[in-house]
Amino acid sequence: MGPADVSTDSASTIKITSLPKLAADGSNWTTYQDRVVTAIKAKGLRRHLSGTARKPEDLEERNGDFFKPKETTALTDDELEAHEKVIDNYEQKEAMVREIVYGTVDRSTFVQIKGAATAADVWKKLQSIHADKGSMFETDLLTQLQTIRYSDGDSMRTHLTKMTELRDRLAEIGAPITDASFNSYIRSSLSLTPRYQPLFTTLTGKPITSTSLVWHLNEEANKVWIEANINCANAVMIATHAKGSGSSSGGSGEKGKDTDQLKGKTR
Predict the structure, then answer these.
(1) pLDDT tens digits along 28-65
(2) 138 found inside a domain
(3) Does 95 share its domain with 164?
(4) Other CB atoms within 10 A of residue 60 CB
(5) Any bridge partners for residue 14, and if so which?
(6) Smallest Cα–Cα separation from 8: which of 44, 36, 46?
C-alpha cells in the first residue's frame, strides 16, 4: 500500500510519509513503535490501538425495522441515524489505525497481519512478529561495536567509518550510546596495534569528542601512510643505486682484463 494521508478532516490528518517504514527484518522496531504509537495517540486513536474501544452493537432487522439486540421496540429514524453515525465513527477510526500500520510495513508483513479482527489485534500481531527482534538487533550491533579490531595494514578511515555506522544504527533502533562510550570503543578497537598509542598518550587527560578523536586518528594514519611510502621509495632508490654501482664496477673489471690480455698478445 502506497504512502498516503489518512484523514477524516483537517484536524485528524496523519501523514504516513512522515512516519518511518518498518524494516522487513524488524531492525528498527523500537524507533518505529515509538513513532507510530505517538502519532496514533496524538490523533486521539489510542483506544483503538490498545483495544479498549468498544464496537457498537449491530442492529437486527425485522420486517423492515431495525432493533437493538434483545429489544422489542424499533428504532426511530433519528435513533437509527444516530446509531449509524456512532458505527461510522468507530469504523473510521479503526480504519485510520489500520491504514497507518498497513502503510508503514512491507508486503510480507502486511499479509501476515491484515486478517486480524480489529486494529488492536493488527497491532498485537505486529508486535508478536517484531518485538523480540529489536532487542536481538541491539545486542548484535553492540557486540560488533565492542569486539571490532583494527590491524596494521587496514584502512583507518574504513575502520572508523564502520564503527560510526554501527553507532548510528544503534541510535536508529532507539539504543544510543554516549560519546564517551564510543570513544572507549574506538580506543579498544586499536588495542592490537601499538602504532597509535603515542597519540592516545598525548590526548590523555584532555576532553575530546569522538568526532575529534576520529579526525586525529585519520590524520595520524595519513602520516603513517606517507612515511611508509617515503621509506618504500627510498628503499627502491638505494637498491637501484646499489645495482647500478655493482654493474659499473663489474664493467671496469672486464675492461681491465681485456686490456691485460691485449698487452700480453703485444708482448
Answers:
(1) 888 888 899 999 999 999 999 999 999 998 889 988 89
(2) no
(3) no
(4) 13
(5) 6
(6) 44
**Strand-pair partners of 66:** 61
CB burial of residue 37 (10 Å; 0-12, 13-18, 19+): middle
Residues 79 and 196 in one domain: no
Question: CA-CA distance, 84 to 255, in Å (whole number)?
Answer: 118
Q: Which residue from 171, 212, 26 is spatially nearest to 106, judged by alpha carbons?
A: 26
Same domain membership, residue 122 and residue 230: no
Of 57, 67, 62, the closest CA to residue 87 belongs to 57
Residues 205 and 123 in one domain: no
Q: Quick one: cell of 14?
A: 496523519
SS3 112: helix
- pLDDT tens-digit profile of 241-253? 777 666 555 555 5
159-213 pLDDT per residue, tens: 999 999 999 888 877 789 999 999 999 999 999 888 888 888 888 888 899 999 9
3-state DSSP helix/strand/coil % of the chain, to nearest 5: 65, 5, 30
In 3D space, the residue among 3, 174, 21 whose CA is nearest the CA of residue 109 turns out to be: 21
Range of the domain at 194: 148-263
Helix count and strand count (H, E) for the chain: 9, 4
pTM: 0.55
- Those residues whose C-beta lies under 8 Å from the C-beta of residue 29, and which sit 6 or more positions away, are 22, 23, 130, 131, 133, 134, 137, 173
- With CA atoms as reference, report the closest residue to 16 among 3, 28, 7, 29: 3
Q: Are residues 61 and 163 in the same domain?
A: no
